[in-house]
Amino acid sequence: MKYNKLLLVLFLFVVFGDKLGAQNKGRKQPNIVFFFVDDMGWQDTSVPFYKEKTTLNMQYYTPNMEKLAQEGVKFTQAYAAALCSPSRVSLMTGMNPARHKVTNWTLIKDKSPDPKHDEIEPPKWNVNGLSATGKDNATVFHSTLAQKLQSAGYTTIHVGKAHFGAKGTSGENPTNLGFDVNIAGHAAGGPGSYYGKYNFSADWRSPGNHTWDVPGLEKYHGQDIFLTEVLTIEANKAIEKAVDLGKPFYLYMSHYAIHAPWEKDERFYQKYIDAGLSEFQATYASMIEGMDKSLGDILQQLKKLGVEENTIIVFMSDNGSPKQTPQNLPLRGHKITPYEGGIRVPMLVKWAGVSDSNTAVNDYLIVEDIFPTFLEIAGLSESEIGETDGKSFVPLIKGEAESKERPLFWHFPHVYDELPYSVIRKGDWKLIYHHFDQSFELFNITEDISERNNLFEQEKGKAKLLAAELTAFLKDSEAQMPKFKANDKIAPYPSECFD
């Protein structure tokens, strides 16, 4: 009898023990790899994000992006800010740029890159970027994504471009912002050079110019090696160390590529020349393929270390492609502009056991959504995540339907390469408000992705409603507005421009 009871106990232990073990395994915090590319346009890939393949899709070769798309989810309407620092501070804080007020790119302490304009004066924005202490002048202070993941038990790794805070401020060093490891990140938004033979410095072409020198990679100086490859090698070493610690890790793989200076990656350049591309286009394509190889190498490392099945990979760009590069047709505009070419970016997600394979999500999302999404994935509660402008897209990853009437906002009160604007996207509609002349553009993005047909005059009722919602957001976020020099008055809010 005792023997039978013992067998029963052992049976129950095996059955329910396995079930509890599976549940605990299911609750294990996944590793998070955020593969963030710089200045990569929506069509700068062989993965088609449009309803059909475009000329650029057929021009570029990104097999690892293709593989990620086949194994995961393609987001066709992912958005970022129109330029780098605003996007990066938004993903770190979950705040829209209008709220955190890093609305242009940062570099020199207390100095804005805005040129002088005869008629408009930009506001006094948070020119020094993200602060670790709250004591730096003209900065935003907020508990960061990396700090919250760190507190949740993650090893946090920063590799590549930081561009969170200005030179000489606490925010220029990612280790002050919640990263346990910083590889090559500092204040600058681009490298002096991608070439190890030039020590990743601009000094070779501009003697004495060390502002853009990539730090911490001295052991590669003088070598014939490309920066994208160096960062990948170092990232894979950091992943292995993190896995050895037995803790979940967050890898922020933030490539400098494909930001200027545009320098050919010799590993891939010649085939694009042979295909008939111009020298510039071949250079650009080679940098894209080098970035894609990095993605493949990191995916391979995850597989090699046995953590692939418990790692979520998110691929995204920080803004659209610059005006010097081939236009991302069918999109209008480029980096910094309010049009789709400036703000719509490629995005791919793979989460083994959660996301479906080879699927597309056409619902839109925006870069500040990264913050609550990653924290939810890490197991934080809503109260631990806190209030945020972002919204978790975990339901979208799982294939669940979302409301299509959520408003998205952009705010650029500057004169850097573009006059000031504010934008709202809600459902099919997008309203652009130009501060300088108080003019509007209204587009039905679903029917007119190229933004060629301004429907403002035909749909003034719709425009007025959107303008009111945009105004309410600008006031709620205490968005800074540009000022007219002639009368020393700030630009009117969009709703004030209607009779």
From TrEMBL:
All copies of domain Sulfatase N-terminal, residue ranges: 30-379
Keyword presence, Nucleotide-binding: no
TM regions (residue ranges): none
Name of the protein described by the UniProt record: Sulfatase
Keywords: Calcium, Hydrolase, Metal-binding, Signal
InterPro entries, per the entry: Alkaline_phosphatase_core_sf, Sulfatase, Sulfatase_CS, Sulfatase_N
Cofactor(s) named in the record: Ca(2+)
Annotated coiled-coil segments of the chain: none
Protein family (similarity comment): Belongs to the sulfatase family.
PROSITE patterns hit by this protein: SULFATASE_1 (PS00523)
